[in-house]
Amino acid sequence: MKRSELTFTLALVPFDFLALLAAAITAFFARFHSVFTAIRPVIFDLNLQSYLKVVAPMVLVFLLVFALSGLYGVTRRSIANEFSRIILACSSSMALVFAISFFSLTLFESRFIAIAAWGLSIFFVTAERLVVRGLQRSLLHFGIGTHRVVIIGKTSASEALAKEFTQKKRLGFRIVSHHKSFTKALAKELRELKRADKIDEIILADPEASRQETLEIIAFTEQEHLGFRYSADLFTAAVGRSIIHTYAGIPVIEVRKTPLDGWGAIYKRLFDVMGALILIVLASPIMLLTAIAIKLDSRGPVFFAKLDDGSVSRRVGQGGKPFTYFKFRSMRPGTHALRYHELAEADTRKGSPLVKIKDDPRITRVGKFIRAFSIDELPEFFLVLRGHMSLVGPRPHLPEEVDDYKPEQRKVLTIKPGITGMAQISGRADLDFDDEVRLDTYYIEHWSPWLDFYILLKTPLVVLFGRGAS
Description:
By secondary structure, the chain is of the alpha/beta class. The protein has three domains: 3-140, no CATH class; 147-231, Rossmann fold (3-Layer(aba) Sandwich); 263-465, no CATH class. Helices cover 51% and strands 10% of the residues. The protein has a four-stranded parallel sheet with strand order 2-1-3-4, with helices on both faces. The longest helix has 35 residues, at 263-297. The mean pLDDT is 84.
């Protein structure tokens, strides 16, 4: 771990203390503000000095719960994950404070101050931690706290990582060198770089690397006290939620099911229905204008709902069950089957189940625009209401494409397909299909309400910049 990261982690304790104290003091003065006293006059006698004597030990209780909630862990978390932990920790802390007050027969005189302090503590701690994150990211631009990494593996995954680390300095990685494989000559070179304090970590970005090579790299990083990361293959992504048990001295790994079983599925369905209704209302003007533009631009129906032979368009949904699919038409009518015949040579995804035609001549002028900004997929909100799709999940594919899935790739059919998902915010059509499956598998195994919320918030940004639009 970098020294600067440890410094920032330790600094969170006094910063949190000050933020919580500021929240408590703000709640106290808010109660005596004319806005609130006009609604309900103050009928208790409490001065700031007496109040702080009660608040100080309460703040220590908050910090203890923060520590138990993992808010002082050294692992970097997403903003959404940290925000959810802050809400949970502040709520748990306030409940614990109320319980202590009840059993100690110490009754607090103002419910308003208590409730306001709870809400303000979430706000102040979140704001404080965002400021700390901002400062930490600012220092990365000067090379302070940057992880100096060596990437091993010449694959699409390694190239994507190299591009991401180079473009996004805020991630905190600087590439020292990039190599195809781990050899004895490279080990000697890396050992010299370590002695000169020029590298911190090794990233193995080859999911197909041999077991022997992986073990050699791990052993080398342990000997030289270097960090080690690796890009996950499909198996690793699938067992990401594993638990280790020990029976008769033998470690047995239990692979947990997706959290979308049980109550997770119920919550997600309620979220989908409410979200789809809201988004349909918001997007209705855009959908109306799109329908008019399609009719004016070319002959044919507004929606793509039937194939060239007149049969209904279908996609494969949860559990491999097909469902009727429609979206705004973006191509000339009667040209769908050309992707498998006349245009087959232009397929840029040969070797994968999916088909992508470069500079597709079938696309209309309006179609090119609505595809670039994913407007053609807006009618899928109605498919969410019907229960065939979800707001977030793996993209739905054609039956003939699903027929070509490898057995391990069929994992993505565990849940309902989505309008957007991990793959869509990570590269859209630029990703290899295996990388897309890995991301979708990670989503299935690590789903949470906050992850859905994060993906939905990030999707418009990705769409507006047009990254990977197909």
